Amino acid sequence: MTKEQARLKAKELVAKMTVEEKASQLLYTSAAIERLGIKEYNWWNEGSHGVARAGTATVFPHAIAMAATFDPELVQKIADVISTEGRIKYNQHVKYGDHDIFKGITFWAPNINIFRDPRWGRGQETFGEDPFLTATLGVKFVAGIQGDGEFYKGTACSKHFAVHSGPERTRHGFDAKATLKDMYETYLPAFEKTVKSGVAGVMGAYNRTNGEACCAHTYLMQKVLRGDWNFDGYFVSDCGAIGDIYKFHGCADTKEEAAALALKTGCDLNCGETYEALMDAYEQDLITEDDLTLAAERLYTIRFMLGEFEETRPYSDISYSKLDCKEHRELNLKTAQQCMVLLENKDNFLPLDKNTDKRIAVIGPNAQAYTALEGNYNGYASEYVTVADGVRRVFENASISVERGCNYCFEQKNHWSGFNYMLSDGIAAASQADITILALGLDCTVEGEDTGNSDDYSDYGDKTSLYLPKTQLKLAEAVCDVCENVVVVLLCGSSVDVGEKVRSHAKAIIHAWYPGALGGLAIANTLCGKSNPSGKLPVTIYNGEHKLPDFEDYSMQGKTYRFIEGDALYPFGYGLSYTKFGYSDFAVDEATDEKFTVSVTVKNTGALKGIDRAQVYAQYTDSRVSTPKYQLCAVKPVELEPGDEKRITLTVDRYWVKAVLEDGTRVDPNGKLVLFVGSHQPDEVSCKLTGSACEKVVIK
């Protein structure tokens, strides 16, 4: 079915509805209209890294971990599996008359907000801090969810439009102030690219942007989204965000006024309950029936495109046996392995011999934590493999001991419930071990979405420090005092610093993110070399003492690798391997008004098979405005056996090498333009850490 055919069918069906019935369809809990053969439908479902909150499904690594693969095609495969499993579950829900929340196939993912500040608790849901990487992975995720058939397999929804990335505590009333330059250079590109690629939905944010509520924003929703970008899908509020318009933003005085403002600005669907006031708004002449009709038609266009009203629903023949099947688990493990970022590996301490009979201690709050595998917005896996489980499976001949050692960020002596001061247990295990695996980090109770609690480390889900929590630093430093061979494995969704003492002592450090249900096995396979780490940082990791700008400041000055002031601890795009790669003969093969086609020879100069993530960066200057230090503009994974080399071709869209003026216009830079290629960005810190430089070609 074409979009136009679906639109005509939607118009025909909506024309048969009364004004009350039309209003009832604009809530996420869309009511049944029995006389028209319409079943109730709940629009709210989540699927950022697996079908969420509704029983068993494959739990993939979280979005920030997917981003660490720097692999758009892999992300599309994951999204395709998510929508396949979503259809499987939806078919059964329909069969048994279950129309509850999280049972539909309208997925409110991907989260393509820019992870501009490492303190933000929801950064784990994003594809990182870079607009190119976020846009590229976002487009592929949308393609995987929606499929390429006659009907949508599922629908994706780009969120949260548009300038949104904390703070969580004040998000319901906060005004994010951003210049047009920052908006068009950083905050809007991923939305533009996913909209123009055909995403079905866009979700507004909780906050205001430059004074207007994001779910009733005339500039963003009407001028940019519907106007400049010709978006023809549906717009949905974040959950409860329309209520914020009158409760906290002061953009309306009553529920009816808030509902009317959002609807007339173009918000078709309310996740929340404020649209229950639509009929009162209609009676008060705040909205017209035409306003209700337009929104209902947009929503029903989506439902027709999903095949809901077909005599035989599309994708109804997908076997239930495909849910969490062997192939999906294999993809899950592959992804988890490829998202591992090796930050340190002193004297090639890793990989370990899988046949070792040494004593290995696995210590830390994430040693046996399922929550650190899942992240947030997760489903339930049929099997979880924790870090300790994975080490036991892989190092079968070793003597394995496990201790928690501490909680994430809370300790109290003489506490009646126990388990609040376990430091001596962790030290004891480490003192008896030949090798200690320190499984540190966070989970969604510490960094997450509006957690509603606050302590000395987490403020409503946002971090207050760039270091690990003090409890974990104390454990890690004590372990380093009693064990010579320490490997740190971080499971979290953001930048954390383990401190200078631990960094200087640890033989190796791995950032494992929230690696999904099989994450512990992926970690163990990485430790033993069965999997050669190939992940790259989708965020900057800062030194714990790094001075960041104010969290509420949405200017990009001093933020991310593109505008950082000072040096990163571990830069965006960085990640080591157990082998080495060399780049040579970088050349521009073709240059058009739209793109550059470049090629480079990549050689595996080490002793092990491995995957490298070729990265092209642009550096350009313009006398009219400031420009990023570097801008990622192409990526491509390349897998090579030892000694092998391959000539690869990458495409650089000129969109990503244009200067953005103060009014948001993209123009060709009037200064220099240089392209770099390599295993990392061309900054001094990355070159020093890797011992390798990038190839470059001067365009002008």
Percent helix: 25-40%
Decide which structural class fits the backbone.
alpha/beta
β-strand percent reads 15-25%
Q: What is the CATH superfamily label of the largest domain?
A: Glycoside hydrolase, family 3, N-terminal domain
CATH class of the largest domain: Alpha Beta
Report the principal-axis shape: globular
CATH architecture type of the largest domain = Alpha-Beta Barrel
How many helices does DSSP assign? 21
The unreliable regions are none
Averaging pLDDT over every residue, what do you get? 97
Helix and strand arrangement:
Elements: H1 3-14, H2 19-24, E1 29-30, E2 41-42, H3 63-67, H4 72-95, H5 131-146, E3 157-161, E4 175-176, H6 180-187, H7 189-196, E5 201-204, E6 208-209, E7 212-213, H8 218-228, E8 234-236, H9 241-247, H10 255-265, H11 278-283, H12 289-305, H13 326-338, E9 341-345, E10 359-363, H14 371-374, H15 387-394, E11 399-403, H16 423-431, E12 435-441, E13 458-459, E14 462-463, H17 470-482, E15 486-491, H18 500-505, E16 508-511, H19 519-528, H20 560-563, E17 581-591, E18 595-604, E19 610-620, E20 631-640, E21 645-653, E22 659-660, E23 666-667, E24 673-678, H21 684-690, E25 695-698
Parallel strand pairs: 3-5, 4-6, 5-8, 10-11, 10-12, 12-15, 15-16
Antiparallel strand pairs: 1-2, 6-7, 9-16, 13-14, 17-18, 18-21, 19-20, 19-24, 22-23, 24-25
Helix pairs in contact: 1-12, 4-5, 4-13, 5-7, 9-10, 13-19, 15-19, 16-17
